[in-house]
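Final report, closing paragraph on structural work. Over the funding period we assembled a curated collection of sequence-structure pairs, and we close with a single example.
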Amino acid sequence: VRPSKLQDRIQYWWSEGDQLTGGVGSNIKQQMKTWGILDKDDQFVRGMTIVEAENLRKRLNQRWKSATGSQREAIRDLKSAIDEDVIDGTGDDYFKAGRKAHKEFMDSIDGKKGRPSLVRQIMDGKIPMEKIPDRVISGSVEDFKLLKNFILNGENGDQVFSDLATQIWQAAFEKGKQN
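Its predicted structure, as stored:
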């Protein structure tokens, strides 16, 4: 894949001021140099593979959470350029189905807007395993339903959910004895 659109967009963001974008353009240029796609004078040495294109997207995604408005604008623009280059080079968007499946999965485990669901917090490692029963007891019905559906759709879901239900009942019993 020849990243010509990406190179144009990097150059645009570079000329707009790399400081404004938090070095997003510099970061991508440096990675392309490291992989041998660009030489020291920012000239193409070779095209990039589809895997390298996806890795550049992932690199941009890693910067998203801490990005400001202009940085996010640059990230969106650069990711779009990568997608266009992949489509131009291959005739197809190889990652569209994967991104769609990922989005659908994340949507299925997300709770109400503005707060992460119990499932998301567990997956992100924000709730220790031993605290899950207490969080289920003190949580919302929506969180319980999301967690139940997530577990039951997984491998050995019935057994895992049965084990969790036992732990929840034990935690509820202990809380009841304390009151």
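The radius of gyration is 22 Å. DSSP finds nine helices and no strands in the chain. We thank the funder for supporting this effort.
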